[in-house]
Amino acid sequence: MPVARDIMSPGAECIGANDNILEAARKLTSLGVGALPICGTDDRLKGVLTDRDVVVKVLGKNLDPQQTKAGELAQGEAVTIGADDGADEIFATMARHKVRRLPVIDGHRLVGMVALADVARALPDPQVGDLLEALSTD
């Protein structure tokens, strides 16, 4: 079975924890992605910022996207997957945390992102249905 480094999108770009949400939104747009890892000044992963976070947690709450920092939206410890973890572990982590994207780390270094679509292509059909069901229920 493939491991995360086999199915991830390599070269994920971070948004800095001190960068504002307007910068993050522009980066999401220019890269054509729905999520960006949030990295601190120590180059460690602090969380993941999604396009939904921008809309719901910033714009929806009338916060100023130029004054709100990406790091303010990082909640607790980031959920990650190791580069050598198998598709089954990715599946289990996504289902357990109800996330559709996971940063892939090698040690403490961010090496890519793995999305639900990546896992769906790597898993046998019955597991794909189980994963979609797990992510779609409360």
Shape: globular
Report how far apart the termini are. Answer: 29 Å
Instruction: Specify Rg, calculated over alpha carbons.
Output: 15 Å
Q: Looking across the biggest beta sheet, what order are the strands in?
A: 1-7-6-5
CATH fold name: CBS-domain
CATH architecture: Roll
CATH homology superfamily: CBS-domain
Low-confidence stretches: none
Number of helices: 6
- Major beta sheet summary: 4 strands, mixed
Succession of helices and strands: HEEHEEHEHEEHH
In percent terms, what proportion of residues is strand? 15-25%
As for the number of domains, it is 1
Query: What is the highest CATH level, the class?
Result: Alpha Beta
Topology, number of strands: 7
- Give the mean pLDDT: 87
**Fraction of residues in helices?**
25-40%
- Which structural category fits the helices and strands? alpha/beta
Organism: Streptomyces siderophoricus
Protein name: CBS domain-containing protein
Pfam families: CBS
Domain CBS: 8-65, 73-131
